[in-house]
């Protein structure tokens, strides 16, 4: 299987060849998304807080898990974000949490607000 052309800096690197046990006649491109992730300690506190708010086991609260998959409705999500604001002594604001869907997104938002408050 052939990959897409890759550029590193100003130098062009020819197409990569990926071997696969699945045969395919089409070409595929592989992308990696780089995001700013919250510190491990922040993520742990967020997971613990969510588990406590929803009365569930913390082991079910993985970073990629959506609040809805944990059984949280919109009111639960608001309560979770309020608990996180209290836990971290930050203010997220009304619009800050409206697009948060996953545990990782909540942790990343908390980290962003903490860093903004520190500067």
TrEMBL record:
<feature type="domain" description="Carrier">
    <location>
        <begin position="37"/>
        <end position="114"/>
    </location>
</feature>
<keyword id="KW-0597">Phosphoprotein</keyword>
<dbReference type="InterPro" id="IPR036736">
    <property type="entry name" value="ACP-like_sf"/>
</dbReference>
<comment type="function">
    <text>Carrier of the growing fatty acid chain in fatty acid biosynthesis.</text>
</comment>
<protein>
    <recommendedName>
        <fullName>Acyl carrier protein</fullName>
    </recommendedName>
</protein>
<dbReference type="InterPro" id="IPR044813">
    <property type="entry name" value="ACP_chloroplastic"/>
</dbReference>
<keyword id="KW-0443">Lipid metabolism</keyword>
<dbReference type="InterPro" id="IPR009081">
    <property type="entry name" value="PP-bd_ACP"/>
</dbReference>
<dbReference type="Pfam" id="PF00550">
    <property type="entry name" value="PP-binding"/>
</dbReference>
<keyword id="KW-0275">Fatty acid biosynthesis</keyword>
<dbReference type="InterPro" id="IPR003231">
    <property type="entry name" value="ACP"/>
</dbReference>
<keyword id="KW-0596">Phosphopantetheine</keyword>
<dbReference type="GO" id="GO:0000036">
    <property type="term" value="F:acyl carrier activity"/>
</dbReference>
<keyword id="KW-0444">Lipid biosynthesis</keyword>
<comment type="similarity">
    <text>Belongs to the acyl carrier protein (ACP) family.</text>
</comment>
<keyword id="KW-0276">Fatty acid metabolism</keyword>
